[in-house]
Amino acid sequence: MTNFFGHNAIPSLPRSAQKIFLLVTDASSEALQFVEAIEDDEGLSGRILKIANSVYFNRGDSCESVVEAVATIGTAELRNILSASTLNDLFPSTHPIREAFWAHNLAVASFSRELSAHLAPGSESEAYVAGLLHDVGKLLLLTVDPARYAQITEETGKTGEVCSTEEAAYPFNHTEVGHFIAREWKFSDALITAIRNHHDPIQSLPPRSMSLIVRCADLLAHKLRIGFPRGYTVLQNNASLKLTEAFERLQLTGDRGRDLTKKLEKNFQQESEILALC
Questions:
Q1: Where are the domains of the chain?
Q2: Which segment of 73-77, 154-158, 180-184, 217-221 scores lowest on mean pLDDT?
Q3: Are 134 and 105 in contact (CB under 8 A)?
Q4: SS3 label, residue 1
Q5: What is the pTM of this model?
Q6: Are the C-beta atoms of 243 and 265 separated by less than 8 Å?
Q7: How far apart are CA 17 and CA 154, in angstroms?
Q8: Closest listed residue to residue 165, CA positions, set 179, 177, 155, 180
Q9: Are the beta carbons of 219 and 174 closer than 8 angstroms?
Q10: How many helices (H) and strands (E) does the chain have?
Q11: Rounded distance, CA 224 to CA 276, Å?
């Protein structure tokens, strides 16, 4: 794959980013470890202080240090903010579609975390990162080949066929690119597998696995049209049909699935306002 992209196209994972991703995916990480990692990055420190002093967290007294900011935000929300902020820095782009991709990634991350809380408690943080990274292959393709990949995105939105449309233009699809990046970055096997398999047939994915959780979260984001403009009705309709199958596989049928969908959508709307500050 490096022969196609070139050796410099795939960003290496900086030491600071490695440390952040290790911390956020480790349930035993403590507040002081987050403080140390944040203080190592001046830009990140400024962002965390800005968020802690925003209307979403400020309780009257402004935070003057990273220690105070971490205490104000709390480690649960901090994990989400750090994950999103770190990945956002790795694939900078001013292309209009980049904003849509990012909104979709944040939604899938949020939905993956909440689904994991219901179905696989204890792995919520890793599920969040898996959801955030599930389309990292798309971010790279948009970065290195923006004009062509924008056309591919428009076509897939109208036909509903994502991977096959990509494979008509490239010798791979975005899940394979994402799999390659995740291996290069030495992520866990569960993360690598979820990124690679998030377009696989639903019945082929193990029940309650991270791969199935991310697959379901991705379909839900498509159904809710998060990250895609109006007019992509085929993609949305296909996702709605497959989501029913995914919910059945996760044993979230009937009112349980509908109630959870409403909760996830509401939670994401609140969360996205905070993450917009990253």
A1: 12-90, 94-278
A2: 154-158
A3: yes
A4: coil
A5: 0.91
A6: no
A7: 32
A8: 155
A9: no
A10: 16, 0
A11: 19
